[in-house]
Amino acid sequence: MGAGGAPSRRRQAARRPRALPTGSFPFLLLLLLLCIQLGGGQKKKENLLAEKVEQLMDWSSRRSIFRMNGDKFRKFIKTPPRNYSMIVMFTALQPQRQCSVCRQANEEYQILANSWRYSSAFCNKLFFSMVDYDEGTDVFQQLNMNSAPTFMHFPPKGRPKRADTFDLQRIGFAAEQLAKWIADRTDVHVRVFRPPNYSGTIALALLVSLVGGLLYLRRNNLEFIYNKTGWAMVSLCIVFAMTSGQMWNHIRGPPYAHKNPHNGQVSYIHGSSQAQFVAESHIILVLNAAITMGMVLLNEAATSKGDVGKRRIICLVGLGLVVFFFSFLLSIFRSKYHGYPY
């Protein structure tokens, strides 16, 4: 009886639940509270992110570029969570700022943003916004920004890197160049659609009509077509336009000049050898034309058979034109190529 009862008591003892150590209960309670808090925090972040994206999509449905002040910039760009890329143009569009470059850049930026908004690839991964200096001065101060316009990309995670600031001075602000930069930074490809521009067609039609009318009026006397001086002038105009960088301006779309928003100083000559302003092309064109005029006068003084005194005056004027304007041209070259003279 006693021997048979021992195994039964052992089996009952084995089936009894083993009590947990006294110190483990607070730990389990703390772990449970931590899991609940983390889950609630994650849910709160998801809700906040959903609210942000919903608000941005609502703004984008109204305007392709929405304006931001300091509060909106900090809420939607600086403060996480984010799962979208934001392209921001920092500018100064108020008339009292007298920033003509800002207006030109804004037009290209508008074309780019409209192309993205109305494309089939439009999604909530990329947004376009703008911060005007007079509406977000604190943002400019926070980013230590002292020039406008400036384009920046704010990635979904982390801080912007150096490549997230668009090199406007070297590349220009054409919509196509901005789209290429955005594709490089975000892997989102924006196909630029420009509104039809009929000004070139109208100008060509007017030119053809003018030439046709002139030929019709002079149909009995077309000797001017064989005028060497006239064709030489036309050729020189084409040469001056091409050597001054007009084709580069047409391709890259650089600003006409650059005005410092702090001191108001206007720069007409770009400081880099990799870029130029439109005004710089005009200056180079005038300098080349003046040097050419000087060379023509020198040639005229050497080959003509007129009065010696008159030829001497022509020679001095031509020499003065060449020396003065060629020196001016070299000074511009030296300011752009800092290693000159080599």
Account of the 3D structure:
- This protein is α/β, with parallel strands linked by helices.
- The chain folds into 2 domains: 44-186, Glutaredoxin; 222-336, no CATH class.
- It has 12 helices and 6 strands.
- It has helices at residues 2-15, 24-62, 70-78, 100-117, 137-142, 168-171, 175-186, 199-217, 228-243, 246-252, 278-303, 308-336, and strands at residues 66-67, 85-91, 126-132, 150-154, 258-259, 266-267.
- It has a 4-stranded mixed beta sheet with strand order 1-3-2-4, with helices on both faces. Strands 5-6 form a two-stranded antiparallel ribbon.
- α4 (100-117) packs across α7 and α9 packs antiparallel against α11 (278-303).
- The longest helix has 39 residues, at 24-62.
- The radius of gyration is 36 Å and the shape is elongated.
- The termini are far apart.
- It is found in: Endoplasmic reticulum membrane.
- Pathway: Protein modification; protein glycosylation.
Task: Give the helix/strand layout.
Elements: H1 2-15, H2 24-62, E1 66-67, H3 70-78, E2 85-91, H4 100-117, E3 126-132, H5 137-142, E4 150-154, H6 168-171, H7 175-186, H8 199-217, H9 228-243, H10 246-252, E5 258-259, E6 266-267, H11 278-303, H12 308-336
Parallel strand pairs: 1-3, 2-3
Antiparallel strand pairs: 2-4, 5-6
Helix pairs in contact: 4-7, 9-11, 11-12
